Amino acid sequence: MRILGLCISLWFGSVLAACSPLPDSQAPSQNTAADHKPPRQVLIVYSGNTLGELKPCGCAKEEDQGGIERRMGYLNSVVPKESNLLLVDLGDNFKESTRQGRIKARYLMAAMSEMGYDAVTLGDRDLLYGNEFLKKQDSIPWLASNMELEGMNPPRTRIKTFDDGLRVAVLAVADPNLFYVSDHGGLTMQDPAEAVKHLLPEIERTEHPDLVLLLSHMEREKALKLLDLDGVDVVINGHIENESDQIDMQPVVRGHKIFMQAAPLGQKMGELRVLIDGGNKKIFQQRMVRLDSKIPDDKKMTALHDAYDQEIEALFFETLKAKRTKDRTQVYATESTCKTCHAAAHETWEGTRHAHAYATLKAVNKSFDPECLQCHTTGFEKPGGFISEIDTPELKNVQCEMCHGPRLDHSQAPQGGFAPEARQACSQCHVRKHSPNFNYKTYWPKIQH
Ligand code: HEC
Ligand code: HEC
Ligand code: HEC
Ligand code: HEC
């Protein structure tokens, strides 16, 4: 009955494996030696699929989750309360091979090294900047059980022993099919299941772990199969295709084993509490913690993010020079020209949020961030489009020509026939991540002109 008592007093949220009386634990056990062990527990906290999201953009309340400031804020509240805590990441930390993407990656790694991870899986995205970049992140506890990376040699297993003697073995495998092996010099991979089968007997013999945690980086269906491997107690999977990828985070419990997936974009932290009784039976309780505005920002991470912003601002001004000397043939007439013939449409537009989209960026000190300007200005990074507030003040905001196309020609020699095309324009910007409630039927009436 000791198990039942612990379930109720220590655990919160939804119970996955039976917390009600367990027939096994009540029956007299044969294993007398193990029975003398007191029940112990460990809290496994997991993140993953971050894709370089240092901070949520704030475009939509529903998606305002995640970021390093809140991740650390969350850890600040959990770490002191838990004597046995294991912090792991499932990989796919990076997003794009641009200069900005690389800068972000560097800051994310700096943040994660402060957070005190115990193991970080190497996913396909994590090799985006090559081995040299990864090698520099030497304070990150990379783990790769079926992978050799030239010059890096991440360990194949990590064993964590807590003060009460509880031992957890952690392994991490990735699906070789996700890696464009030819692009990554010095990468060799083995079959994930074979690697685990090869490593586990030795670990069990020499380390006697109480719990075996397998981190995996692959498609959900493939990862689920790893749960069947002998000796594996917990599988946590990660992998994300793109920022709009939906991830099924529903845990799967099979006997005394459990499978889970990390949330997209680091938006939620996973918590798995494992209670291990004297007979080494495990009970699991899992929940996802939303990193939303209720979680306080960590000051150190805020400072780190401010430093990132400064670096992006410097990069923005550095690239201005090249943009100014590029071909600046005018293609946009700008809203003030459209106004001369379409006064009524213009007046309506002025009353919509599209006409204030640039001020929104200024208000959050992001008017220099290319990742924001693309949707909050007119023609950013397109020929003749927005460069900066100083160079092209007339192209701020989401103007007529973001929906109707560049229309300098039309404004000089008006012809019709292109209005219906504008209905297709919304999806450039009103994508799920930035506008999850978008629906043409409900949004169009708000800006109809
Ligand atoms: C893919 C296009 C896109 C990108 C990129 C983008 N935004 Fe947005 N943003 C939108 C859209 C669309 C909305 C309106 C969402 C809605 O209400 O449905 C919005 C709304 C906002 C709002 C809310 C305004 C309000 O008054 O509620 C803020 C703040 C904002 N964006 C900031 C940013 C920042 C900062 C970045 C860069 C980190 C950024 N956006 C990048 C499309 C984008
Ligand atoms: C170039 C990017 C872009 C395009 C194209 C675009 N929008 Fe937007 N839209 C935005 C941004 C950015 C905001 C938020 C502006 C802000 O508040 O700063 C927004 C806000 C809105 C809002 C206000 C939401 C609210 O709840 O008040 C509506 C409505 C809207 N858009 C409808 C549309 C429709 C309909 C289309 C297509 C016909 C469209 N938008 C095309 C970027 C775009
Ligand atoms: C957010 C996207 C968006 C913006 C910004 C926008 N429009 Fe439109 N506009 C549309 C759509 C969508 C239609 C309707 C197309 C349809 O259903 O036929 C439309 C229709 C029109 C029409 C035809 C109206 C009619 O009666 O047939 C005119 C004229 C027009 N827009 C001018 C403007 C001008 C001028 C501006 C800037 C001041 C502007 N639009 C800004 C999306 C936009
Ligand atoms: C010199 C006056 C003038 C200017 C400037 C002008 N338009 Fe027009 N616009 C017209 C006239 C006239 C029509 C009707 C053309 C027709 O039906 O043949 C029209 C029609 C339209 C239509 C409806 C097209 C359709 O399918 O029937 C849209 C949309 C539109 N204009 C958008 C714009 C935008 C955006 C700008 C600014 C870039 C702009 N116009 C600038 C005069 C102008």
Secondary-structure map with pairings?
Layout lengths: L1 H9 L12 H4 L5 H4 L4 E8 L20 H11 L6 E5 L9 H17 L3 E3 L8 H7 L5 E2 L3 E3 L7 E5 L5 E8 L12 E3 L2 H16 L3 E7 L2 H6 L8 E5 L13 E3 L2 E5 L6 E9 L5 E9 L8 H27 L9 H7 L1 H8 L6 H7 L6 H7 L23 H5 L3 H5 L27 H8 L2
The site of one heme C has 18 residues, from helix 10, helix 14 and helix 15.
Keywords for this structure?
449 residues; alpha/beta; Purple Acid Phosphatase, chain A, domain 2; Flavocytochrome C3, Chain A, domain 2; 2 domains; 6-stranded mixed sheet; 17% strand; binds heme C; Multihaem_cyt_sf; MULTIHEME_CYTC domain-containing protein; 5_nucleotidase/apyrase
Poorly predicted segments: 1-34
Shape: elongated
Percentage of residues in strands = 15-25%
SSE sequence, one letter per element? HHHEHEHEHEEEEEHEHEEEEEHHHHHHHH
Q: What is the CATH architecture descriptor of the largest domain? A: 4-Layer Sandwich
Q: Kindly report the CATH topology of the largest domain.
A: Purple Acid Phosphatase, chain A, domain 2
CATH class of the largest domain: Alpha Beta
Evaluate the radius of gyration: 26 Å
Helix/strand class: alpha/beta
**Number of separate strands:** 14
Organism: Nitrospina watsonii
InterPro entries: 5_nucleotidase/apyrase, Cyt_c-552/4, Metallo-depent_PP-like, Multihaem_cyt_sf
Signal peptide: 1-17
Keywords: Signal
Structure explained in plain terms:
This protein has 449 residues and is α/β, with parallel strands linked by helices. Helix 4 (68-78) runs antiparallel to helix 9 (299-325) and helix 12 (357-363) packs antiparallel against helix 13 (370-376). The chain folds into two domains: 2-299, Metallo-dependent phosphatases (Purple Acid Phosphatase, chain A, domain 2, 4-Layer Sandwich), CATH 3.60.21.10; 329-447, Flavocytochrome C3, Chain A, domain 2. A hairpin with a 5-residue loop joins strand 13 and strand 14 (282-290). It has helices at residues 2-10, 23-26, 32-35, 68-78, 99-115, 130-136, 192-207, 220-225, 299-325, 335-341, 343-350, 357-363, 370-376, 400-404, 408-412, 440-447, and strands spanning 40-47, 85-89, 119-121, 142-143, 147-149, 157-161, 167-174, 187-189, 211-217, 234-238, 252-254, 257-261, 268-276, 282-290. Helix content is 33%, strand content 17%. It is built from 16 helices and 14 strands. Strands 4-3-2-1-13-14 form a six-stranded mixed beta sheet, with no helix packed on it. The protein has a six-stranded mixed beta sheet with strand order 6-7-9-10-12-11. A two-stranded antiparallel sheet has the order 5-8. Bound molecules: heme C (4 copies). The site of one heme C has 22 residues, from helix 12, helix 13, helix 14 and helix 16.
